[in-house]
Specification:
CATH superfamily of one domain: Gcn5-related N-acetyltransferase (GNAT)
Strand content: 25-35%
Largest sheet: 7 strands, mixed
Shape: globular
Distance between the termini: 25 Å
């Protein structure tokens, strides 16, 4: 049985921790990213992207273990600190986003096979593909929808 986690809204005060979780997670799972692109996305995350979503987090011992950003019916970002991989934090946030926030869509980097398999296991189906990411970088994006 998976642990149950308390999910709470995150605020601007949590941005530093969120960015640290994001960077640790991306470094552990996105080996396909160049260092310069990783630093660009980190800058955009802090200056632009976090403000564009409703943020939710799971904290353990007062520290953010995982977070999700939601806009409309889409999970725009979902990242767990590597020390919390496999502990159910991503599952808990995804189930919360589906059940409580009405999320039905998510995009995932095609090269991030672990995330793709996670979302398929969570009930999503691949419905489309973009050759590049939102910035036109050569990181194909798969578009997923929750199976009905």
């Amino acid at each position: 049985m998976m642990a149950t986690y308390n999910i709470e809204p995150a605020s601007v005060n949590d941005y530093d921790q969120i960015i640290n979780v994001w960077e640790a997670s991306v470094r552990a799972t996105h080996e396909f990213l160049s260092e310069s692109d990783l630093l660009l996305y980190k800058e955009l995350l802090s200056t632009k992207y976090l403000a564009m979503v409703k943020l939710y987090c799971i904290k353990t011992d007062g520290q953010i273990a995982a977070f999700a950003g939601v806009a409309g019916n889409s999970i725009e970002m979902l990242f767990a600190h590597p020390s919390h991989f496999g502990k159910g934090v991503g599952r808990s946030l995804t189930e919360f986003a589906i059940r409580e926030l009405g999320c039905r869509a998510v995009d995932v980097n095609e090269q991030n096979r672990i995330a793709l398999l996670f979302y398929i296991k969570m009930g999503f189906d691949v419905t489309g593909r973009s050759e590049t990411d939102g910035l036109g970088k050569p990181y194909p994006i798969l578009h997923l929808q929750l199976a009905t």
